[in-house]
């Protein structure tokens, strides 16, 4: 049985840092990867906020960048407090350990419920919204037995397989990853389930602002949370074009284990899971298949020595002068619509990595850079 709550290290943000972090991640053109690069370069969120207008201008933007105000950040923090929720920074002790290790992890995570669920090693159980009776029963069996073995069960609060997995793990610890704000659950029919989750041994998590209604493009981000928190993901039923397959693909990208439950080739709800098996997912017909595969991963501390950077940091990062216009042009000219590795840009231009990263930040803040999986980047083609 895995050791519950084995490692909860980190440094808590102070109130001022939390407001600055929230302002930064809520500002235009600042996603998780950009946030990380800004902190790495400028040392603190406050310094990065002060530099955003200059970065946007140098990146070629002709419009003023919208920067979240201190009043807006304070209001969102007050809304969270009234709702019984809080924001966890990526370097804080209660932030899920596995999640903080992935590229582009949310710098701030809104959470409500029992935080002890986040300290457990987690297994994702996902699948079809239009689940069969046998699929829902099997998902509940998996979630119940894996939960009793000491794991939290994380899923996406959707109908079908997700709902069955959450309900079966309410007593042992379940985590609901949400595509919208914590106060905007989807689907509405699972509001009562969500209340059971955060009133019991469960936790709801989201990287979206309070009041945010989930849209279609937000669900892959929700799936990313599931894959990032979990050590392994079990797909019970999934059609050929299914969000559960996105979760499985992301889990593989993060080095997590992917388990798939075989199904009838005549059932379209099993086409995706059978495809995962062809691609190398672990055949799963009982909870022990998952527990035995995960045992070596939980017997040791996988993340020893790999803690996320502490909040704050030195302000000396941003003291180097910006690149010259000619160097900036060389970096921009090296980019095209095809995604490339940043190391290739460094080698191609012969410029210092710090100069390349700063120019990419400028382009990013100006809305002229696309980021792709694996840390690749491309230029946004102008109309």
State the order of secondary-structure elements, H for helix, E for strand: HHHHEEEHEHEHEHEHEHEHHHHEE
Strand arrangement in the largest pleated sheet? 1-2-6-5-4-3-7-8-9
CATH T-level fold name of the largest domain: Rossmann fold
Determine the strand fraction and express it as a percent band.
5-15%
CATH hierarchy: architecture of the largest domain: 3-Layer(aba) Sandwich
Judged by helices, strands and strand pairing, the structural class is alpha/beta
Helix content: 40-55%
H/I helix tally: 14
Q: Average pLDDT, to the nearest integer?
A: 90
Largest sheet: 9 strands, mixed
Distance from N terminus to C terminus (CA atoms, Å) equals 57 Å
Number of strands: 11
Radius of gyration: 21 Å
Give the domain tally. Answer: 3
The low-confidence runs, each spanning 5 or more residues with pLDDT under 50, are: 303-318
Return the CATH class of the largest domain: Alpha Beta
Indicate the overall shape. globular
Explain what you see.
The protein has helices at 15-25, 32-42, 45-58, 70-82, 133-148, 161-168, 191-199, 219-229, 243-253, 271-278, 287-299, 325-334, 342-349, 353-365; strands at 86-89, 108-113, 122-126, 152-155, 174-177, 202-206, 230-235, 257-260, 282-283, 369-372, 376-379. It has 383 residues and is α/β, with parallel strands linked by helices. It has three domains: 15-94, no CATH class; 110-299, Rossmann fold, CATH 3.40.50.450; 324-374, Winged helix-like DNA-binding domain superfamily/Winged helix DNA-binding domain (Arc Repressor Mutant, subunit A). α5 (133-148) links the parallel β3 (122-126) and β4 (152-155). α1 (15-25) packs parallel to α3 (45-58). It is globular and about 65 Å long.
């Amino acid at each position: 049985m895995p050791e519950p709550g084995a490692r909860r290290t980190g440094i808590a943000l102070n109130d001022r840092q939390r407001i600055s972090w929230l302002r930064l991640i809520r500002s235009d053109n600042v996603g998780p990867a950009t946030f990380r690069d800004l902190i790495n370069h400028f040392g603190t969120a406050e310094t990065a906020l002060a530099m955003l207008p200059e970065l946007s201008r140098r990146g070629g933007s002709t419009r003023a960048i919208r920067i979240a105000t201190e009043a807006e950040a304070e209001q969102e923090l007050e809304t969270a407090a009234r709702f019984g929720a809080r924001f966890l920074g990526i370097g804080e002790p209660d932030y899920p350990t596995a999640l903080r290790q992935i590229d582009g992890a949310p710098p701030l995570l809104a959470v409500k419920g029992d935080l002890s669920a986040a300290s457990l090693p987690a297994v994702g159980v996902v699948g079809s919204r239009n689940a069969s009776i046998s699929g829902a029963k099997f998902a509940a069996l998996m979630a119940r037995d894996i939960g009793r073995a000491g794991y939290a069960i994380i899923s996406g609060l959707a109908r079908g397989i997700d709902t069955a997995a959450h309900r079966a793990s309410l007593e042992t610890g379940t985590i609901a990853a949400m595509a919208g704000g914590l106060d905007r659950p989807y689907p509405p029919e699972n509001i009562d389930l969500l209340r059971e989750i955060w009133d019991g041994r469960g936790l709801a998590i989201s990287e979206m602002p309070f009041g945010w209604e989930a849209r279609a493009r937000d669900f892959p981000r929700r799936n990313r949370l599931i894959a990032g928190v979990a050590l392994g993901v079990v797909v019970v039923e999934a059609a050929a074009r299914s969000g559960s397959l996105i979760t499985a693909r992301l889990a593989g990208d993060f080095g997590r284990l992917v388990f798939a439950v075989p199904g009838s080739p005549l059932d379209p709800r099993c086409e995706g899971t059978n495809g995962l098996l062809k691609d190398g997912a672990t055949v799963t017909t009982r909870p022990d298949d998952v527990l035995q595969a995960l045992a070596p991963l939980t017997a040791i501390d996988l993340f020893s020595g790999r803690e996320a950077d502490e909040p704050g940091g030195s302000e000396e990062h941003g003291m180097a002068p910006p690149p010259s216009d000619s160097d900036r042009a060389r970096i921009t000219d090296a980019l095209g619509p095809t995604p490339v590795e940043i190391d290739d840009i460094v080698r191609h231009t012969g410029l210092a990595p710090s100069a390349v990263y700063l120019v990419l930040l400028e382009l990013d803040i100006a809305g002229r850079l696309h980021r792709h999986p694996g840390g690749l980047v491309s230029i946004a083609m102008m109309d």
